[in-house]
């Protein structure tokens, strides 16, 4: 069976080199009983490839049993996999077969095998080595003829080093490893997959077939697709059911893509649930806290480099005409809030302005009624002695060093906060917050 016939038979869409390599490796291992480990992120289609391997194998007329190891409670997984005798545990009112007995003569697909408890891993290793197992509550061995395909979205080698997965089992199930790449690494498959799911959803739900214009295609290609093919299918089904326009534009798609809605990097927190909270709201709050934590680490690292002499002093900063080397902050490149690829400009894609403030920063005038004269004199003294602190008169405190470095960088760039933030190696948002703190302290 050639590659095109395999794709048509099992519904594998795509012509990228990566997906062709996956199909070729699946075709080579299918005719044997060798154990296969499918590795890839959640939603890339590991179950579909497992179906294809079974369907091309000599066992294709036997059962194909799917077991999600992460969905079975730890106390029940052994009885679910290997069966149990009557009275083996509370509630076992009769003898029951396990998945390995049901899959005899066919294939068993162990999805999320990295979630399997260690006790069950010992039993699984015995099945792989001897082809025998015992039901829970019994000592009589039972023979089984099963081909095992396992799948995981975890780094099992790392789990072995951490002691969460048995090393001997890892080597036994990873005889052949097939890596299924995420959707963002095979972008030429995005549009064909989307149109395939769109056409199938239109047939299923009896809706008119939609067409994507060029702006919608470009948005789909730029999007990061953290949920991979599963998320792509979800968006296509929403387009087929929720949108009434014949031609779909980028503006129509934006509300359906996570992290793009309303031109923001985060979806707005809703008030859908006032009793117990919405899980999505908890996730968003967690992300915001993580982002603040990254900013704090960023400031601490900057001040540590300043004190230890690893960072340039204000007089060594590049002149305003020079283009400082730009190192994106962790909150831009490592957090999952922005789901676009890194080579897409942040403002251009999201049309997002962090705050509505002028591009150049000036300290707030001290015309408040409660501001005292000696506070103003203290401010002048601090600014005039800033260079002295760095020239060795005395070691500045962390707060003084931070304030002095920010003020001097802004002076160097004529108040341009973006250039100052880049030269300091921090994000603009962090600089906005620190400036506000300086204004409130003055």
Concise summary:
With 442 residues, the chain is α/β, with parallel strands linked by helices. The chain has helices at residues 3-10, 17-30, 46-56, 77-82, 99-102, 118-130, 156-161, 167-173, 190-205, 214-222, 228-242, 250-253, 279-307, 330-333, 346-350, 373-384, 386-390, 398-412, 417-424, 428-441, and strands at residues 36-39, 64-68, 107-111, 132-134, 141-143, 147-152, 176-179, 211-212, 247-248.
Helix and strand layout, with pairings?
Elements: H1 3-10, H2 17-30, E1 36-39, H3 46-56, E2 64-68, H4 77-82, H5 99-102, E3 107-111, H6 118-130, E4 132-134, E5 141-143, E6 147-152, H7 156-161, H8 167-173, E7 176-179, H9 190-205, E8 211-212, H10 214-222, H11 228-242, E9 247-248, H12 250-253, H13 279-307, H14 330-333, H15 346-350, H16 373-384, H17 386-390, H18 398-412, H19 417-424, H20 428-441
Parallel strand pairs: 1-6, 1-7, 2-3, 3-6, 8-9
Antiparallel strand pairs: 4-5
Helix pairs in contact: 2-3, 6-8, 9-11, 18-19, 19-20
Structure description:
It is a single chain. The chain is α/β, with parallel strands linked by helices and 442 residues long. It has three domains: 3-181, P-loop containing nucleotide triphosphate hydrolases (Rossmann fold, 3-Layer(aba) Sandwich), CATH 3.40.50; 184-257, Helicase, Ruva Protein, domain 3, CATH 1.10.8; 282-441, no CATH class. Helix content is 46%, strand content 8%. The protein has 20 helices and nine strands. The strands form three sheets. A five-stranded parallel sheet has the order 2-3-6-1-7. The protein has a two-stranded antiparallel sheet with strand order 4-5. β4 and β5 (141-143) form a beta hairpin. Mean pLDDT is 78; it is low at 260-276, 321-361 and 364-372.
